[in-house]
Amino acid sequence: MSSTDDGGIREKLPPERLLDTEQPRLIRAGVACMHDVETIQVYVAQENQHQRRGWVLRLLARRAAMLREGR
After folding, report:
1. Based on C-alpha coordinates, what's the Rg of the chain?
2. Which of 15, 31, 37, 54 could form a disulfide with 46 if both were Cys (CB 3.0 to 4.6 A apart)?
3. Is 22 exposed, middle or buried (0-12, 13-18, 19+ CB in 10 A)?
4. Are 43 and 60 in contact (CB under 8 A)?
């Protein structure tokens, strides 16, 4: 998918909104809806600037790795 396909998640669940929850289930669901590495990088930057939760950063890194592998 192209980066324009993921524009929807950035508009509907921008990084500051998605990552402002303490509910892992919601974050995991949002990450699963990310279909390009560029989008993931935006969320990683947001998390790094604010909460720096290791589990969130690992989740985003795993999703990026899956996309790079074509899964």
Report:
1. 11
2. 15
3. exposed
4. yes
Q: What is the mean pLDDT of the chain?
A: 91
Give the confidence band of 4 by pLDDT, cuts at 50, 70, 90: very low
Residue percentage of the chain with pLDDT more than 70: 90
Element (H, E) at 40: helix 37-49
Residue pair 50/26 in contact by the 8 Å Cβ criterion: no
68 vs 53: CA distance, rounded Å: 23
Q: How far apart are CA 67 and CA 36, in angstroms?
A: 7
pLDDT attached to residue 2: 44
